[in-house]
Amino acid sequence: MDGPNTTSGADRFTRISLVFVLAIELLLVAVIVVIFVPQWSAADPDPRYVDVADMPRAAAEPGVGAYTWSCGRNEEGHRNTANVVVAPGITGPPHHVHDYIGNVSTGVDSTDESLAAAGTTCANGDRSTYYWPVLRTGARAGQATHGTIQVATAITLTVYGNPAGPVVAMPPLLRGTMGDANAATQDSGLARPTWTCTGAPDRRGERYPRCDRGDRVVRVFDFPSCWDGRRTDSPNHRAHLVFPVVGGACPAGTFAVPRLRVTLEYARPDGDRFAIDAFPNQGNSPRTDHAFFVNLMPVPLMAKIVRCLNTGVACG
């Protein structure tokens, strides 16, 4: 007869079975994590990503006047698939969502008049609309639309003067376009993505950066700043506002306007990949990053900014 502290064979079998089942469950959890939440690793073979230390060093920029302001971080969650610059009045594909700051009304039904009458998230009263594709984390490679949309931890807007001479005011309703949403499959020469990390701002490149632990991912949009002096838009949404030539001077027949830079920072959870929304055939490539603006700054504010930039000082 078994004593009070004796374990029967059946009990031992039950315990062993439970341990075996638990081990199987833990193994399945590990497999799911590996499959559905790709881990961040320096050995990651995905060519879209690169260690920030391996990115090229950025060239020094000339000293010019600068004006900086804030329009928030889109804490309000203003997002949609519209593109009021390229395709006004048309709802975009669901896999290509835009983040907005500035004008609070920007959407598929926006008109110049409705935008001009709307409110803004900008502290200085700037009613312009600024937008770009959302960034997501926790997604499988090439499937960023299955990830979680990230709210930037910081967004800074800065306009700069021109190193070759004075700038003139942007006209109301001027459209600005930078980057190429189809750059992964066509070499148009229009792609201008810039990615870096807060801990290595002098390292910049076209690929998603693997930042050091604790650093934030940085995404930079540098817009063209040479206006043809006549149009606020053009058939390709680019010809009326082009980039300066080497040295910063504007091409003949164009006039320097304030050069806009938008800088976004994102916290990167350890172990999560990140990618921007893109068209299905673009593979969420970092080279497809792009952004737009429609200038709706009040005329007095624009005049103040032009005076600041042409004195060569930092203000805002």
Summarize the model shown.
The protein is of the alpha+beta class and 316 residues long.
Could you characterize what this model shows?
- The protein is α+β, with helices and mostly antiparallel strands.
- The chain folds into 2 domains: 30 residues; 275 residues, no CATH class.
- It is 15% helix and 23% strand.
- The chain is globular.
- This is DUF1996 domain-containing protein.
User: What is the CA-based Rg, rounded?
Assistant: 25 Å
Q: What is the averaged pLDDT score?
A: 87
Count of DSSP helices?
3
Distance between the termini: 89 Å
**Which H/E pattern describes the elements?**
HEEEEHEEEEEEEEEEEEEEHE
**Domain count:** 2
Helical/strand content category = alpha+beta
User: What is the overall shape?
Assistant: globular
Would you report the number of β strands?
19
Q: Helicity level, as a percent range?
A: 10-25%
Q: Strand sequence of the main sheet, in spatial order?
A: 10-12-16-8-2-19
- Low-pLDDT runs of 5+ residues are 1-7, 18-22, 26-41
Organism: Phytohabitans rumicis
Transmembrane segments: 16-37
Protein name: DUF1996 domain-containing protein
Pfam family, one: DUF1996
